[in-house]
Amino acid sequence: MASLKRNVGWTLAGNVFYSGCQWAILMVLAKLSSASTVGLFSLALAVTSPVLSLSNCQLRTIQAADARGRFSFPIYFGFRLICTSLALIAIAVIAVYTRSDELGMAVIFAVGLFKAAESISDIVYGFLQKHENMRIISQSMMIKGILAICGIAAGQLIFDSLLAGALLIFAGWTLLLLIYDLPQARKLVQREGLSAREGLMPHFSTGQFRQVFTLAIPMALVLMANTLAVNTPRYALAHWAGDAELGYFASIAYLIVALNLVTTAINNTILPRFAVYHMTDTKKFIRLMTVGLAFIWGIGLLAVLVTFFAGPLILRLLYTPAYSAYAPLLVLMMIVGCMLNSSALFGTAVTAAQSYWPQTLNALLFLAVAAGASLVLVPKSGAYGAAEALLLASAVQMLAFAMTTIRMCRRMPANGQSSKEPISEPAAQ
Q1: How far apart are CA 282 and CA 268, in angstroms?
Q2: How many C-alpha atoms does 399 have within 13 Å on its Cβ side?
Q3: How far is CA 311 from the centre of its chain?
Q4: Are 40 and 155 in contact (CB under 8 A)?
Q5: What is the pLDDT of residues 134-192, one digit of tens each?
Q6: CA-CA distance, 80 to 254, in Å (whole number)?
Q7: What is the pTM (predicted TM-score) of this model?
Q8: Domain residues of the chain, as ranges?
Q9: Calpha distance 37→246 (Å, rounded)
Q10: Residue 133 φ/ψ, nearest 5 degrees
């Protein structure tokens, strides 16, 4: 448990710092440019994220939960490289067909480039996470956050260009991957007695790729559907209300990251333990779930109270006085964040059990409700309608995930291993 607490601490520190830097990007854009620029950047993220979510196939999570070592890291690495390349082609096509202006097309593709670099780092993180080496992941995320702020700020201050800022982020993140992420993973491989070439070089095997794809496709659909669901209100806002209204909504909605970072730290750290406990000890599995949910809702309640009483002041200080008029929107988004984080914890538990298709059904339900509610509410209420659509959809998703998790726990063995193969808890690095 000491190693678990240490890893939670490192993961939380990395997520806090990185998420703060991601929020700072929006703050820099809000202060150095216009709400329309913030809206264009948010739209670019909303367009590229579902594509890369599908191509990522949640391989990091699957790799970290692969307690039996069914596939080696080179297989995951090679599969991720191919999928990311295909995703960039898809993003280029989408950019051409969704924007009539050349600047919008270029910004969407540039954002796709730095998100692709992040995707490659993510598969390396999965290898480190499987070995519970969360310190290296957190340090990399901290450096990545600093590079992102510097890139977007330099783009505005030096070039007065969102496109330049996005390209600078891409250059910085690619350099970080080459000189930090991969070398750190190489050290871990060498400690296991393998050569760097044997342990890290991507391997391309059609037969194994087919098996990985079969295993990962439900999780890929889950991530894509969830990403589309979260971004559907943004698409509706861009269509019916314009980039400026989208800019206000996106800047305020991003503040739920303050809640997400806690859940992400917990989920990333306990996923390998969930995988072991699922096969060895149902009581420990349920205990971890209960403690996680209590922590999420405790933090969430505090966030709702703070934003209810100090919302206008918070928005005025973080952005500009114009944002303070949207203070009630901030309270709604805090409630949405609590529900989304609860669903994420349930999803981590189900993923640890390698039960993927039930998550796909839950994610598609989430998407359907979000899309339907956005079509009805956004044209009437703008940014508030977008928040209400997410509130309804996240409540439905949370209830569906809770039911899935309860059914799964009832099927788990009361005690002892469910397999004849010995399972041991990962050794902390």
Answers
A1: 20
A2: 6
A3: 25
A4: no
A5: 889 999 999 999 999 999 999 999 999 999 999 999 999 999 999 999 988 888 776 65
A6: 27
A7: 0.72
A8: 2-411
A9: 10
A10: -95, 70
Among the listed residues 81, 88, 333, 97, the one whose alpha carbon sits nearest the alpha carbon of residue 201: 81
CA 330 from centroid of its chain's CA atoms = 20
CB 11 within 8 A of CB 134: yes
The tokens 């750190």 sit on which residue? Answer: 184
C-beta of residue 48 within 8 angstroms of C-beta of residue 111:
yes
Pair of tokens at residue 58: 């949640």
Q: What whole-number distance in Å separates Cα of residue 258 and Cα of residue 248?
A: 18
Q: Which residue has the tokens 């954002």?
A: 111
CB 423, CB 280: distance < 8 Å: yes
3-state secondary structure the chain: CHHHHHHHHHHHHHHHHHHHHHHHHHHHHHHHCCHHHHHHHHHHHHHHHHHHHHHHCCHHHHHHCCCCCCCCHHHHHHHHHHHHHHHHHHHHHHHHHHCCCHHHHHHHHHHHHHHHHHHHHHHHHHHHHHCCCHHHHHHHHHHHHHHHHHHHHHHHHCCCCHHHHHHHHHHHHHHHHHHHHHHHHHHHHHHCCCCHHHHHCCCCCHHHHHHHHHHHHHHHHHHHHHHHHHHHHHHHHHHHCCHHHHHHHHHHHHHHHHHHHHHHHHHHHHHHHHHHHHHHCHHHHHHHHHHHHHHHHHHHHHHHHHHHHHHHHHHHHHCCHHHHHHHHHHHHHHHHHHHHHHHHHHHHHHHHCCCCHHHHHHHHHHHHHHHHHHHHHHHHHCHHHHHHHHHHHHHHHHHHHHHHHHHHHHHCCCCCCCCCCCCCCCCCC
Burial of residue 354, with CB atoms counted within 10 A of its CB: 0-12 exposed, 13-18 middle, 19 or more buried: middle
Is residue 30 within 8 A of residue 200, CB to CB? The reply is: no
In the numeric block, the tokens 């191919």 are attached to: 82
- At residue 83, what is the residue type? C
344-397 confidence digits (pLDDT tens): 888 888 877 777 778 888 989 999 999 999 999 999 999 999 999 999 999 999
